[in-house]
């Protein structure tokens, strides 16, 4: 039997100390050992029963219940004041044999893999690599869990690929404590696995694009994601270059994504006509406090997997004295004008080394990120054609009303089908400012005030935007989610309403959903929504 | 200019303190592969935040004929994710005055997360 240890705990915090937040109980479930229960499906189904027991227990006490992964979100999206469930030990992966593929599946069976929620991106990459496969994309690092990633919409800078949720093709959710409350969702237009698979995980199958897309970036509110089916691809290499290029050129590329006709050319990265290739990855780093005419950009090109290639890992990795960071931040709170100077001094630590070139797999390129102390990250999504316009207004605001201890970056991501995915534009520019968490003082505004100003400035300049669900913002900003997603909000709520009972909608709600007004069900109760199409 | 006696002593003390401090250092050896074993209760605000840390803080006594020793780690069935070894001035001194018979071991380690 899977066992859960439930510990009374008065507070909980994110990895990067964005809390603390109050809590009553922290649950940690571990699966039955494989020596006692041989079949992976049995152990998986046994764990599902245990989660159902915990959900019922919470509901009976009129309390909430929320799963979390690695606590890497910097917003309070993972927090629930009553019961939080730590998923990390739920990390089975089950191979998918050919006979479980759906007859109308357009996916190569060898590319489909089933992972339980607590598997990290790193672990998944290792499993895939042992099959000669790779994830299509990941974030800048690898410690998040797969369920945590899709719940907020984690992205990298893969402009032709999309975000992590975009290669998820099946979702196994636990939406209550009854046997019929275990469901397996797929898109009806792109089925992946057949009903025999669903039987193995004792799930009711619903194939419905709208439901699937709503649940995909579910903000932890669509029940407990127990497992996901992902589509992998053949392992590949990424050739990575870090260059300093004229500011105007970097922004022109951001606005147009027209690499082919640009003057930005890297030897060897050209097509048969000598025109620059479109990269796999494009990222621009911007220090808002210098008048430099050049920006540092990171570009990567996809290459076939071939061994041998040089070891991409450095042998030694140093980290800054943490006390030094704390000291800098204390000085910054008292003397904010010193921030630009500090950033300049730390540029070698913050920015990648210019003219660096590496070759490695996705796993090796987007590797571990060690904890480096309290941190913040604000990230807005805009249509890439608005990249330079949005940056200009946010830079102006940051210079005039700041400074704050962070630097900007831009990453570009292909559109998602997820209803509330923040990468909603054809190509979304994720414009982010990351740095060290500070406290408000007489001389420096708070992080919430700064992120409110970001929202106001974008609205004042008529730049449509979204915000990364897992990052810092003024999440209580009036009408924020409607402004970002319009009619999609009602659609998302309708499918949540249809799938989850009213009782379970409350169980799977939290302060974040309340702050964003997503906890309230729609008035419509359209029974026909939750059907296979 | 002649250095005063007091200044000379101060300088010497400073040099000795610097030498002592630099003789205490930490080395981390990290596996490139695998996840750390997590511990959601480890709220520490250091490198090991939310990792399950195990520590060794002991003095090993060996006989004059023993060249070295191997301390066995029995609680990492999946392997080691990270090992941090701390070299202290006290440890070096102890080893020196006992002609290597007593050796202080101060280490921290995190196991690899068990895979299901
Ligand atoms: C060092 C660092 C680097 C980062 N880099 C990037 C990046 O490159 N790109 C990017 O987009 N983001 C990035 N982020 C943000 C972070 O990756 C996301 O916020 C991500 O969602 C965190 O995943 P997690 O597993 O830690 O989930 P958590 O933060 O623990 O949880 C996130 C959400 O998932 C829900 N959830 C988790 N498991 C389940 C489940 N089983 N069932 C239902 N709901 C569940 C939680 O309730 C919560 O709503 C970074 C964060 C850090 C700290």
UniProtKB/TrEMBL annotation, chain A:
Cross-referenced Gene3D superfamilies: 3.30.465.10
GO molecular function, one term: flavin adenine dinucleotide binding
Segments traversing the membrane: 210-230
Transmembrane listed as a keyword: yes
Highest taxon of the lineage: Bacteria
Family annotation (InterPro entries): FAD-bd_PCMH-like_sf (IPR036318), FAD-bd_PCMH_sub2 (IPR016169), FAD_lactone_oxidase-like (IPR010031), Oxid_FAD_bind_N (IPR006094)
Domain FAD linked oxidase N-terminal as annotated: residue spans: 49-176
Alphabetical UniProt keywords: Membrane, Transmembrane, Transmembrane helix
Protein name: FAD binding domain-containing protein
Taxonomic source organism: Kordia periserrulae
From TrEMBL, chain B:
Signal peptide bounds: 1-29
Keyword set includes Signal: yes
The entry's keywords: Signal
Keyword Signal in record: yes
UniProt name for this protein: Lipoprotein
Native organism: Kordia periserrulae
């Amino acid at each position: 039997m899977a066992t859960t240890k439930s510990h009374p705990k008065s507070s909980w915090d994110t990895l990067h100390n964005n809390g603390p937040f109050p809590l009553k109980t922290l649950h940690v479930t571990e699966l039955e050992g494989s020596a006692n229960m041989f079949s992976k499906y049995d152990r998986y189904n046994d764990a599902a029963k245990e989660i159902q027991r915990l959900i019922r227990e919470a509901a009976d006490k009129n309390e909430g219940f929320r799963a979390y992964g690695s606590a890497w979100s910097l917003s309070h999206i993972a927090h629930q004041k009553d019961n939080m469930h730590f998923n990390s030990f739920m990390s089975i992966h089950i191979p998918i044999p050919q006979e479980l593929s759906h007859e109308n599946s357009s996916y190569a069976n060898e590319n489909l893999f089933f992972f339980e929620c607590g598997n990290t991106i790193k672990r998944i990459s290792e499993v895939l690599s042992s099959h000669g496969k790779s994830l299509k994309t990941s974030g800048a690092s690898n410690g998040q869990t797969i369920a945590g990633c899709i719940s907020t919409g984690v992205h990298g800078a893969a402009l032709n690929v999309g975000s992590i949720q975009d290669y998820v093709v099946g979702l196994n959710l636990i939406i209550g404590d009854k046997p019929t409350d275990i469901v397996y969702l797929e898109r009806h237009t792109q089925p992946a696995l057949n009903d025999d698979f669903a039987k193995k995980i004792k799930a009711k199958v619903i194939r419905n694009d709208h439901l699937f897309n709503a649940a995909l970036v579910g903000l932890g509110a669509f029940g407990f994601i127990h497992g996901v089916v992902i589509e992998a691809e053949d392992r590949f290499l990424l050739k990575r270059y870090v260059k300093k290029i004229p500011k105007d050129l970097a922004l022109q590329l951001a606005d147009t994504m027209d690499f082919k006709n640009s003057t930005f050319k890297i030897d060897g990265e050209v097509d048969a006509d000598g025109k620059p290739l479109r990269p796999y990855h494009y990222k621009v780093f911007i220090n808002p406090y210098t008048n430099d005419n050049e920006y540092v950009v990171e570009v990567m090109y996809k290459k076939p997997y071939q061994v041998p290639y040089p070891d991409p890992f450095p042998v030694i990795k140093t980290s800054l004295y943490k006390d030094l960071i704390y000291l800098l931040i204390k000085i910054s709170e008292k003397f904010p004008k010193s921030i630009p100077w500090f950033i300049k001094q730390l540029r070698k630590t913050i920015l990648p080394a210019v003219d660096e070139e590496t070759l490695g797999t996705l796993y090796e390129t987007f590797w571990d990120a060690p904890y480096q102390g309290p941190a913040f990250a604000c990230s807005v999504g805009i249509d890439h054609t608005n990249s330079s316009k949005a940056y200009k207004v946010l830079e102006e605001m940051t210079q005039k009303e700041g400074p704050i201890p962070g630097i900007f970056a831009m990453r570009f991501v292909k559109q998602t089908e997820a209803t509330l995915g923040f990468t909603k534009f054809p190509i979304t520019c994720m414009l982010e400012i990351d740095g060290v968490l500070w406290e408000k003082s007489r001389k420096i505004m708070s992080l919430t005030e700064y992120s409110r100003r970001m929202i106001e400035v974008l609205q004042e300049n008529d730049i449509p935007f979204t915000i990364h669900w897992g990052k810092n913002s003024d999440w209580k900003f009036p009408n924020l989610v409607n402004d970002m997603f319009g009619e999609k909000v009602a659609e998302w709520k309708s499918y949540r309403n249809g799938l989850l009972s009213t009782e379970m909608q409350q169980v799977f709600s939290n302060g974040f959903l309340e702050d964003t007004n997503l906890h309230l069900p729609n008035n419509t109760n359209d029974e026909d929504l939750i059907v296979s199409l | 200019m002649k250095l005063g006696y007091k200044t000379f002593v101060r300088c010497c003390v400073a040099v000795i303190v610097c030498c002592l401090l630099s003789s205490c250092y930490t080395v981390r050896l990290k596996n490139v592969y695998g996840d750390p074993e997590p511990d959601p209760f480890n709220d520490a605000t250091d490198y090991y935040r939310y990792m399950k840390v195990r520590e060794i803080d002991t003095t090993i006594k060996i006989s004059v004929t023993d060249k070295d020793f191997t301390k066995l780690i029995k609680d990492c069935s999946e392997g080691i994710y990270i090992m941090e070894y701390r070299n202290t001035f006290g440890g070096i001194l102890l080893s020196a005055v006992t002609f290597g018979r007593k050796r202080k071991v101060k280490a921290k380690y995190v196991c690899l997360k068990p895979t299901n």
